[in-house]
Amino acid sequence: MADQRSSTLDDAATARPSLGEGVLGSLLVASHHLHADDLPVAVGEHARRLGALDAVMYLVDLEQRVLVPMGADPAAADDESLDIDATLAGRAFRAQTLVEGEAGAGERRLWIPLLDGTERLGVLAVALAAVDPLTEQRFRWLASLVAELVITKSAYGDAVWLTRRRREMNLASELRWAMLPPLSFTSRYVEIAGVVEPAYEVAGDSFDYAVNGRTAHLAIFDAMGHGLEASRMANLAVGGHRHGRRHGLSLVETFMTIDETITRSFGHEHFVTGQLATLDLTTGTLAVAGGGHPWPLLLRGTAVVGELAGEPCTPMGLGRPPVVSETQLEPGDRVVFYTDGVVEARSPAGEEFGLARLGDLLGRAAAAQEIPAETMRRLTHSVLAHEAGQLRDDATLLLVGWRGPMAAD
């Protein structure tokens, strides 16, 4: 047995890797000593070894309107950015699928989404003399590795974040983005997507989630006030939610932990509205503990059937425990949590965005079979357009969908 294993290892050591294996392995090994700033050059070099004429990494800006070339001269970045709603690159990003187009002089260009799971980071643009199925597959694999490197290297330097920013960000918003989880997650049993606006000035709004075993944990917060103090309160709320779920606390216990922390840190005159929720992935039971916050909407099929039923409760920070309400979801149901800045957004003429408009847009997105992350992106842009691009309050959305029961042990 030992001799057979030794022979297998020897064969593996002397085997010649395929072109794809060699290139991906080389980039993976090189990545251990790359700075975030080095990614565009390293990716371009390895793409050319796979047969590309050129390759460019595009990252999505924080408002999710354009795709910005990483490594471009900052002075030219705006001119070289690509509109998500009006380009082939944008189509690949919106639908999370490879798109092929012309690159000039008889060449072809592949636009391949950069995905960390279902978190949309941007696209990889690759120019080729010709395209065949094997070539497509190799570059899909390369794009997958590149996306993982974008995530890992963003923790060690600012190049990724600076590429995604198109203007100055205030300190309150810096705190918000530092505490946000990835904007989307999908598994066989659950889909989650969230978004916050205004991206560069958001303060008191936030959301959080985690999927642990058979439970999806969710939270949405709206801290009173504006600016740095609201951002600090929101950070404490998110931290309290993570502390509670990691210590196995119930929704009520976690709610009261946040409540006590807000009071201890900011006094009795401050509070945070919001909701904490858990979704049982085996049964589809959604439990919600609300605190002075609009109740989520239930989307079934292509229509919003109404708000979830729940007991009115006071916000976190006022010392009163919440009442937990349960809703039994059906496979395919989606629930949308939102802050009041969404429905209370007003046009220059004074017209509210309103609950009916929100429900109508959610129904249309479902009928068009949009992925959750795209629905959230388009919804916030609709809210921004309604207020002529100037939000008077933070606007946050968090969608959770139950795709069907996780098998019991």
Count of discrete alpha- or pi-helical segments spanning 4 or more residues? 13
Largest sheet: 6 strands, antiparallel
Strand order of the largest sheet: 3-2-1-6-5-4
Care to count the β-strands?
17
List keywords for this structure.
409 residues; Beta-Lactamase; 2 domains; 6-stranded antiparallel beta sheet; 17 strands; 27% strand
Report on the structure:
- The chain folds into 2 domains: 15-163, GAF domain (Beta-Lactamase); 169-402, PPM-type phosphatase domain (Phosphatase 2c, domain 1, 4-Layer Sandwich), CATH 3.60.40.10.
- Helices cover 38% and strands 27% of the residues.
- A hairpin with a 2-residue loop joins strand 4 (99-104) and strand 5 (107-116).
- The chain contains 13 helices and 17 strands.
- The two termini are 35 Å apart.
- The longest helix has 21 residues, at 133-153.
- By secondary structure, the protein is an alpha+beta fold.
- It is globular, with a radius of gyration of 23 Å.
- The chain has helices at 2-14, 19-31, 39-49, 74-80, 88-95, 133-153, 159-164, 171-179, 227-246, 251-266, 340-343, 355-367, 372-386, and strands spanning 54-60, 66-69, 82-83, 99-104, 107-116, 119-128, 184-186, 190-197, 205-212, 215-223, 272-280, 285-291, 297-300, 303-307, 324-328, 334-338, 395-402.
- The strands form 3 sheets. The chain has a 6-stranded antiparallel beta sheet with strand order 3-2-1-6-5-4. The chain has a 6-stranded antiparallel beta sheet with strand order 7-8-17-16-13-14. A 5-stranded antiparallel beta sheet has the order 9-10-11-12-15, covered by helices on one side.
